[in-house]
Amino acid sequence: MDADQQEITRLWKVYRTIHQLCHDRGYLVTQADMEMDYEQFRTQFARNNVVDRSTMMFLVQKRDDPTEQLTVFFPDEKSVGIKTARKYCERMIAQGIRRGIVIYIKSITSSAQKVFAASSRKVEVEMFQEAELLVNITHHQLVPRHVVLSSEEKQTLLQRYRLKETQLPRIQINDPVAKYYGLKRGQVVQIIRASETAGRYLTYRLCL
């Protein structure tokens, strides 16, 4: 397999995983995008066997709130710089889009990260390296199902068991599964594991 084919294969896997991630976060995503096969991807995005990353950009909206939208960007430079970061932030602000995900090839410069941080009152930008999305970690047989609780569900849980949130086990915000679901500090995730005796058992973790 030559270098061009390797890149097409890599981006095809990333494209499928990021659509699955959006779906699992409650955004409207077609089954076709989540299950797109290699030939379909190559035909759509890799004319002349070169992927045009700019054409891979897409916008999704929440199933229960169409006004809440998310843009996914695929910058083509190996190290994302300040110019690209500003362009993405300005575009999102102009379009009234609050959330964004940047999928970068190798790195994001510290200056670009500062641009995203400085714009955080208007836009929230998450960053994933392509390598993080080659496989969907939540599909691994050793990773149990995770369900992010709403604020109301969190309060119901704490009241039911008469707990303070600090008494819950913790999950770090940079944990790969926490990052996949976009967990924020203070959110609680329900973890569902199979049990030979009870069928399943539930645990809860607080994101810190």
TrEMBL record:
Q: Which residues form the RNA polymerase Rpb5 N-terminal domain?
A: 6-92
Pfam families (UniProt xref)? RNA_pol_Rpb5_C, RNA_pol_Rpb5_N
What the entry lists under Gene3D superfamilies is as follows: RNA polymerase, Rpb5, N-terminal domain (3.40.1340.10), RPB5-like RNA polymerase subunit (3.90.940.20)
The entry lists its GO molecular-function terms as: DNA binding; DNA-directed RNA polymerase activity
| InterPro entries linked to this entry | Arch_Rpo5/euc_Rpb5, RNA_pol_Rpb5_N, RNA_pol_Rpb5_N_sf, RNA_pol_subH/Rpb5_C, RPB5-like_sf
Source domain of life is Eukaryota
Please state where this protein is localized. Answer: Nucleus
Q: Which UniProt keywords apply?
A: Nucleus, Transcription
**Biological process, per Gene Ontology:** transcription by RNA polymerase II; transcription elongation by RNA polymerase I; tRNA transcription by RNA polymerase III
- List, for all copies, the residue spans of the domain called RNA polymerase subunit H/Rpb5 C-terminal: 135-207
Q: Which GO terms describe its cellular component?
A: RNA polymerase I complex; RNA polymerase II, core complex; RNA polymerase III complex
PANTHER family with a match to the protein in the record: DNA-DIRECTED RNA POLYMERASES I, II, AND III SUBUNIT RPABC1
Q: Which family does it belong to?
A: Belongs to the archaeal Rpo5/eukaryotic RPB5 RNA polymerase subunit family.
Q: What is this protein called?
A: DNA-directed RNA polymerases I, II, and III subunit RPABC1
